[in-house]
Write a structure and sequence with these properties.
By secondary structure, the protein is mostly helical. It has one domain. It has ten helices and no strands. Helix 6 runs antiparallel to helix 10. The protein is globular and about 55 Å long. It starts with a helix and ends with a helix. Keywords: Membrane, Transmembrane, Transmembrane helix. One of its GO terms (cellular component) is membrane. It holds the Pfam family GDT1. Its main location: membrane.
Length: 209
């Protein structure tokens, strides 16, 4: 009987990279993380968002490809989901507050001291990295990377996955930038808060399905 592993693993490095890249692209396009990045890119530093996302995605891709499920599932998915829901809830509240504070600033005039200070580049970078980590840890893309790495060279699988995550992150940032130019900032903040609330509710709901 022919060994499937042997057939797949004989693919060239370019074929393995291409397969991994395509797998990640299909798994991540339109995914929850894609919309998180797009929403953040509407108002915050796009370079910080892109790099924060890529840092986390690279870490997850390497872990999934070389160590696999032993580490990916080392942290109980239940507690990851709880932490993710709390994080989304906090960011929802902050987004609603920023929308309200921004409107109050306009009413009080430009000479008044701002009610809030927008995050610095590094704060945006780490905020994005944290949000993506909790949204992606144990996600279906992790399983896909582990499956490919079991059948092919994990180095090339990781390279393809990292490239795929970079392309998805870039597209999400561009989408956020384009939409952000045509929608008032207050509406963006309210929409972001509502989206975070939906993500928090869905994450909790999935625990009991």
């Amino acid at each position: 009987m022919t060994d499937t592993r042997a057939i797949i693993s004989t693919g060239s490095p370019l074929e393995t990279i291409g397969s991994s890249l395509l797998t990640i692209f299909i798994a991540e396009i339109g995914d929850r993380t894609f919309f998180i990045i797009a929403v953040l890119a509407m108002t915050y530093s796009r370079s910080a968002i892109f790099l924060g996302n890529q840092l986390t995605m690279t870490f997850i891709a390497v872990i999934a490809a070389f160590i696999g499920g032993a580490v990916i599932y080392l942290i109980d998915p239940f507690w990851v989901a709880i932490a993710s829901s709390v994080m989304f809830l906090v960011y929802a509240i902050l987004s609603f507050y920023e929308a309200y504070a921004g409107e109050s600033e306009k009413i009080e005039g430009d000479n008044q001291e701002p009610l809030i200070s927008y995050p610095t580049w590094f704060k945006t970078f780490w905020k994005t990295a944290a949000m993506v980590f909790f949204a992606e840890w144990g996600d279906k893309s992790n399983t896909s990377i582990m499956a490919l790495a079991a059948l092919s060279n994990p180095i090339f699988v990781a390279i393809g996955a990292i490239m795929g995550f970079a392309i998805i992150g870039f597209l999400a940032v561009i989408l956020g930038k384009v939409i952000g130019k045509h929608i008032p900032e207050k509406i963006v903040k309210i929409a972001a808060g509502a989206l975070y609330l939906v993500f928090a509710a869905l994450t909790l709901a999935l625990l009991f399905i």
